[in-house]
């Protein structure tokens, strides 16, 4: 069983190890566009792609790996956590 609470570094390392360049967060409720995190090729930068302009802000906002970790750490559903573990390659 993997550690439940993960650090930003855990995600950065997992993204590097598994070649993960983006993480889908949710779909826009209006147009269905997949909104989520995107990582720079060297994994030093994290951005959040709002993707569409339904909310009036078609921008990529700077984020950090801490946001990615927080999104994971605040999950309470075992099912969601299991899916995320699979995605990130956490055992
Ligand atoms: Zn939209």
Q: How are the elements arranged and paired?
A:
Blueprint lengths: L7 H11 L3 E6 L6 E6 L6 E4 L10 E4 L1 H9 L4 H11 L3
Antiparallel strand pairs: 1-2, 2-3, 3-4
Helix pairs in contact: 1-2
The structure holds zinc ion (ZN).
The site of zinc ion has 6 residues, from loops.
Task: Give the key terms.
four-stranded antiparallel sheet; alpha+beta; binds zinc ion; 4 strands; globular; 91 residues
Structure, explained:
This protein has 91 residues and is of the alpha+beta class. The protein has helices spanning 8-18, 65-73, 78-88, and strands at residues 22-27, 34-39, 46-49, 60-63. It starts with 7 loop residues before the first helix and ends with a helix. It binds zinc ion.
Short description:
The chain has 91 residues and is an alpha+beta fold. Helix content is 34%, strand content 22%.
Task: Look at the helices and sheets and give the structural class.
Answer: alpha+beta
The largest pleated sheet is described as: 4 strands, antiparallel
Given as residue ranges, the uncertain stretches (5+ residues, pLDDT < 50) are: none
Overall 3D shape: globular
The averaged pLDDT comes out at 91
Counted by DSSP, the helix tally is: 3
Q: What is the rounded distance between the termini?
A: 7 Å
Strand content is: 15-25%
Q: Supply Rg.
A: 13 Å
Distinct compounds present: zinc ion
Instruction: Please provide the count of β strands.
Output: 4
Helix fraction, binned, reads 25-40%
List SSEs in N-to-C order.
HEEEEHH
- Spatially, the strands of the biggest sheet line up as 1-2-3-4
């Amino acid at each position: 069983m993997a550690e439940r609470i993960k650090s930003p570094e855990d995600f950065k390392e997992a993204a590097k190890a598994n070649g993960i360049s983006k993480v889908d967060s949710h779909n826009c409720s209006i147009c269905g566009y997949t909104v989520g995190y995107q990582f720079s090729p060297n994994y030093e930068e994290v951005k959040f792609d709002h993707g569409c302009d339904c909310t009036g802000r078609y921008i990529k906002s700077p984020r950090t790996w801490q946001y990615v970790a927080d999104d994971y750490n605040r999950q309470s559903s075992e099912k969601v956590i299991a899916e995320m573990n699979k995605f990130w390659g956490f055992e």
